[in-house]
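Notes from hallway chat w/ T.B., transcribed later so I don't forget. T.B. wanted the structure written out for a chain they're using in a teaching module, and asked if we could keep both sequence and structure tokens in one place. Agreed to drop them here.
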Amino acid sequence: MPLTVSAALKESRERLAAASDSAALDAEVWLAHVLGQPRSWLLAHPEAELSTAAQAAHAAGLLRLAAGEPLPYLLGEWEFYGLSLLVSPAVLIPRPETELLVETALGWLADHPGRRAAADVGTGSACIPAALAAHCPDLQAWAGDISPEALAVAAANVARHGLGGRVRCIASDLMAALPGPYDLISANLPYIPEARLPELAVSRWEPALALGGGPDGLRLIEPFLQQAQARLLPGGLLLAEIDASLEAAVLALAGGLWPVAAVEVRPDLTGRPRLLVVQT
């Protein structure tokens, strides 16, 4: 018996209810992807029948989603700050919380038109430098990561949005291979304390290299701040996403490294401490 769009969506919602807080949305996005149609088309054509190939692809993806695999990895792309970015299990999935960092950086860049040298450390998918360069046409940025697989995704995203002349991807352990100095330094490094990782669903699917911050969450953040202190130009800006539990520790670290700078941690939209801001 042919499977209609309406029946496929109903089955998907039921199968995904236990695995996702957004089962209805996930069901629509996945089926739209399988059929190569916008979500609005699904709602306008509930009686349309899936081909045999589409039914097989839909069923295979549904199995993976029901097991908890993140939808962006099935799609192979995800939206971040208005950009469609390629993603794979080699990189973290870009999240709305990180848009706070991008918004803060773009506001600062708009107020400082002469400051256009930037670096993003632990760039992953290059979501941060790609978003910054896409919205700041004269920005020159370096995007560093220690993972060759992540750098391949980053380079593909830079090419996808025509940013190759302004965003350079480079293999680097933190800032070791980044030339500098810079007006703007950003980072979304692994910051989750290791004891908490096993209880988080994200640890089942997303790269461990991009998640675990050591026993105290500072394994990479502390050396990054130390390296950045020597690379950030006077009058520059440093932005780093952190875990809420690290607020006091990163304020102490940054305050010690930049004793006369303005140092604060800003909250995200949920009110949780999220973004370390250092203005020298």
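Follow-up for T.B.: The radius of gyration is 21 Å. Might be a good example for the class.
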